[in-house]
Every structure is written in C-alpha cells, then in structure tokens.
Write a structure and sequence with these properties.
Blueprint lengths: L16 H17 L13 E2 L14 E5 L5 E3 L2 E3 L4 H9 L6 E6 L5 H13 L4 E5 L1 E2 L16
Parallel strand pairs: 1-7, 2-5, 5-6
Antiparallel strand pairs: 2-3, 3-4
Length: 151
C-alpha cells in the first residue's frame, strides 16, 4: 500500500490576521500622504462665523497666493517677492477664461501686507478675487439666548 497524505480538516473561521496587517499598512500610508495633499504653504487662516464655501479654490489649477504671518508671499508653493506678483499672475491668467485668484492670509499677518498683496493681484487684471477663511466650528451648539430684560 502506498502512503497517502491526509488533508487537514476544513477550517470554518476566516483568518483575519492578514487583513488586519493590510489595514494597518493602509492606515500608515494615508497618515503619511494626507499632509502632502495640501497645496501651497500652510497658514493659519482667519476664522469667521459666516464663511462662504468657494469650491473653485479646491481645484488643481486654482491660483492661490498665500501671505504668511512674517509677511512672506507664496504663489502656490513658490516664494515670490511683492514686485514679482503682478507679472507672475499676469503670466498665469493669460490663457485662462476664469481669471480668479484666491488669497490665503495668516490670521496674524499684518493688514498692510495683505492689502499690498491684494493691490498687486488687482494690478495684474484679475476679474475676481477670493479671500479664503475658515468657518468657526461650534463646540456645544448655539449659545443660549440672553435672559429677558428686567430679570
């Protein structure tokens, strides 16, 4: 008689350990890649109550000028001087139908620096200018109404 190996019994429970390993690797990949998805320079934008959602600012070809708190200006992720902004933006909007530029300013940037940047953008012939802000997130919901007068 010849030796015939026996197969192990069939397991009814699925093996989830390889799936957990794959999920952990995917989690790490997403944690590393997500900060790289942000376009341009990171600034702490001003927080407002009545922010409007500007969908065009999220497009890949959106022109975004960032003003940092120390007065440096970045067009996309490239640092530009104040006197170079007009010519750079003219070049970028020359062949575009939508001549919109968005300005992301740090909340602690000097008001004068932001005004100078906006003036340079306007001098380039921009049709629409968007000032990007963040909406204030309510922690506990709306505040309670004030007590009635006379109490």
């Amino acid at each position: 008689m010849a030796y015939k190996p026996k197969a192990p019994p069939v397991m009814a429970a699925p093996n989830v350990i390889p799936m957990a390993d794959i999920m952990l690797v995917l989690l790490i990949i997403f944690m590393v890649v997500t900060p790289m998805l942000q376009k341009g320079v990171s600034v702490d934008m001003a927080k407002v109550n009545n922010a409007r959602d500007l969908q065009d600012a999220d497009k890949d070809d959106a022109i975004i000028l960032a003003v940092t708190r120390d007065g440096q200006m970045y067009l996309g992720s490239t640092k530009v001087g104040l006197d170079d902004i007009t010519t750079r933006i003219k070049d970028l909007i020359a062949n575009r139908l939508d001549k919109t530029v968005f300005v992301r300013s740090d909340s602690r940037a000097k008001y004068g620096d932001v005004v100078k940047a906006v003036d340079e953008v306007r001098a380039a012939g921009v049709d629409h200018l968007g000032l990007l802000t963040e909406k204030i997130r309510a922690k506990n919901g709306p505040a309670p109404p004030p007590p009635p007068p006379g109490t």
